[in-house]
Design goal:
The complex is a heterodimer.
Chain A lengths: L3 E4 L2 E4 L4 E8 L5 E7 L6 E7 L2 E5 L6 E7 L2 E7 L7 E8 L9 E2 L3 E5 L1
Parallel strand pairs in A: 2-11
Antiparallel strand pairs in A: 1-3, 3-8, 4-5, 4-9, 5-6, 7-8, 9-10, 9-11
Chain B lengths: L3 E4 L2 E5 L4 E7 L5 E7 L5 E7 L2 E5 L2 E6 L4 E6 L8 E11 L2 E6 L3 E6 L1
Classes of the chains: A mainly beta, B mainly beta.
């Protein structure tokens, strides 16, 4: 299994909802990442987990809450989002912790906040 | 000024043409990545370079560390190559390594 999977593919939520995005990889990678990408812009790093510990938080608002229950799974919990949070959320993983080579990206979850 | 600059922003080519996309950066890097993003969002990592040249099929990537410049070449381009190509550099900021992305080059290959 050489891919990163993300669910759901699309999500529409209201500003008062609580939802979660899920990312999974079974390549034995030890670093996992969340990125946010707005239309026609490059991805922006949000969080990095290295060996299941949060190693980088790029000053992301607390309405986004990451969780890494195990080395294969990465969640992003969403609460009280704003319409400007609508974007493509990309998950990625890499083999040897944060200081490593190629990142493998998932297909993304397209989030719309109404 | 962005730390990673790509040119051109948009590129239209006819099937079969040789294509070059350029990336210049202004920071010290440990590696440079070329990524491909198709409409709908999924990103595929094409190359990771720290020196020299790599080739995979019709794709060739080169990097000149002294000049802080990299190029991605596509030979015998095909409509399925139509995508956004993103250059990203691995650099250290504030004591942490991170990827800094260019804004991407949108390539359209017409049949």
């Amino acid at each position: 299994d050489t891919e990163v999977t993300q669910t759901p593919k699309h999500l529409v939520m209201g500003m008062t909802n609580k939802k979660s995005l899920k990312c999974e990889q079974h390549m034995g990678h030890r670093a996992m990442y969340w990125y946010k990408q707005k239309a026609k812009k490059p991805p922006e790093l949000m969080f990095v987990y290295s060996y299941e510990k949060l190693s980088i938080n790029e000053s992301v608002p607390s309405r986004f809450s990451p969780e890494c229950p195990n080395s294969s799974l990465l969640n992003l919990h969403l609460h009280a989002l704003q319409p400007e949070d609508s974007a493509l959320y990309l998950c990625a993983s890499s083999p040897r912790g944060a200081h490593t080579d190629t990142q493998y990206f998932g297909p993304g979850t397209r989030l719309t906040v109404l | 000024k962005n730390e990673v600059e790509q040119s051109p922003q948009n590129l239209t080519a006819q099937e079969g043409e040789f294509i070059t996309i350029n990336c210049s950066y202004s920071v010290g890097i440990s590696a440079l990545h070329w990524l491909q993003q198709h409409p709908g969002g999924g990103i595929v990592s094409l190359f990771m370079l720290s020196s020299g040249k790599k080739k995979h099929g019709r794709l060739i990537a080169t990097i000149n560390i002294q000049e802080k410049h990299s190029s991605l070449h596509i030979t015998a381009s095909h409509p399925r190559d139509s995508a956004v190509y993103i250059c990203a550099v691995r650099t250290t900021q504030g004591g942490s390594e991170k990827l800094v992305f260019g804004k991407g080059t949108k390539l359209t290959v017409n049949p």
